[in-house]
Amino acid sequence: MKNRNSVIVPLLVVMSLMFIWNLSRNINDILIPHLKRACQLTDFQSSLVQSAFFGGYFLLALPVGQFISKYGYKAGMVTGLLTAAVGAFLFFPAAEIRYYPLFLGALFIMAAGFTFLEVTATPYVSVLGDPERASSRLSLASAVGSLGATIGPFIGSQFLLHATEVSPATVAEFTPSELGQYLNAEAQLVKTPYLSLAGLFVVIGILLCFVKLPKIEEGNETSGSLKSVFKFRHTILGALGVFCYLGAEVGIVSFMIRYAKSSGIPGLTEQSAALFITLYMALVLIGRLGGAYWLRRVNPPKMLALCAVAAIVLIFVSLLTAGYLSVYAIAFVGLFTSVMYPILFTLSIKDLGAFTKTGSSLIIMSIVGGAVIPPVMGLISDSFTIKHAFLIPVICYAYLVYYAKSGHRIRRDMAEKRSGNINLNRPVL
């Protein structure tokens, strides 16, 4: 019983962290329309929220991995929480002066903290306990994270969006003084949620210092330089697939409120429109839970192709219709994107042997798609319409169809070269 408790408590701690950072991260989807209004931004400018956030993941994934290798998982978790707290605290001065670049800087620092948490959590959960049940633990941990991602947009909408909105026509009639007061009041709304998150991060970080976590010893096997994995075609194409998958998902939820408001639904407020983001993330959660069953029975590449085609069909249904049908169609894309990442990840690192760790690092760096695709969609929305912008996710999912059909195949000459020398090391990133 004692040995069992020594595993359960650390698992609960790590899963709690996964819940908290996913909840915090998905408030960004509410922050985009809020800052668009408070700082008087274009769609492109407001989408830089995601660029600052996911750019932090991209730039820090490898340095954080090196830090954790040197100082351990617990030090990584505590450092991540305290770093995220600094970023959240910076929302106070950013709101005081209503300075958008400072908001972006705060988000970048929060992302730096979450990078520590994300890079520690997955490998820690996978190696803590019975190796035969690693997949089960990871599936449960992902579900806990998805629950946080589902709740986050709803909580954010209650703090940052209004049940009764001030119409653009009314705002246009404000005097310069009235407009300044209105915009400053809007900016102040971020203080309560983000200062609360900052305090929560600090408290958990301090408590974690007193929680005994088992030390996980990693092997000393070499993994090669990042450049070394570029000879694996399926890995490079898989990394591009993760870039497209995450870019499309982040782009869709980033502009979900903007898209819903343009769909012609009478009386739809931003706060009500935010419920479609919650629906999207709830469907992701349902899909992941169901995926644990179906992925054991359906060929993963076929499943990936089916889900990508379904996502494309739903987007076109949305673009060609209006009203609630249009918005619900976009929301249901979440159901089919839910299993894309685990499929892409496993196909991309297949048969990498001693290069598995490095390949895993490249896959994690590919989440920079979340920093690139939303601004592209914002530029298209500013230049044309928001519906035109949603053609970008169609292109992303079309690439995933290609990867599922042929891009994931390992070259025969490479497979033969590596036969008999396969060492499937567990990735640390």
Please render the helix and strand layout as text.
Layout: H1 2-25, H2 28-38, H3 43-71, H4 73-89, H5 91-97, H6 100-127, H7 134-160, H8 168-172, H9 176-188, H10 191-209, H11 233-254, H12 256-261, H13 270-294, H14 300-319, H15 323-331, H16 333-337, H17 340-348, H18 356-365, H19 369-383, H20 386-389, H21 391-407, H22 412-418
Helix pairs in contact: 1-6, 1-7, 2-3, 2-7, 2-9, 3-4, 3-6, 3-19, 4-6, 4-10, 5-6, 6-7, 7-13, 11-17, 11-18, 11-19, 11-21, 13-15, 14-15, 14-17, 14-21
In short:
Helices cover 77% and strands 0% of the residues. With 429 residues, it is an all-alpha fold.
Structure description:
It is globular, with a radius of gyration of 22 Å. It has 22 helices and no strands. The protein has 2 domains: 1-212, Growth Hormone, Chain: A (Up-down Bundle); 222-429, MFS general substrate transporter like domains (Growth Hormone, Chain: A), CATH 1.20.1250.20. The model is unreliable at 419-429 (pLDDT under 50). The two termini are 31 Å apart. It is an all-alpha fold.
State the share of residues found in helices, binned by percent: over 70%
Largest sheet: none
Instruction: Count the domains.
Output: 2
CATH architecture of the largest domain: Up-down Bundle
Radius of gyration: 22 Å
Unreliable stretches (pLDDT < 50, length at least 5) are 419-429
N-to-C terminal Cα separation, in Å?
31 Å
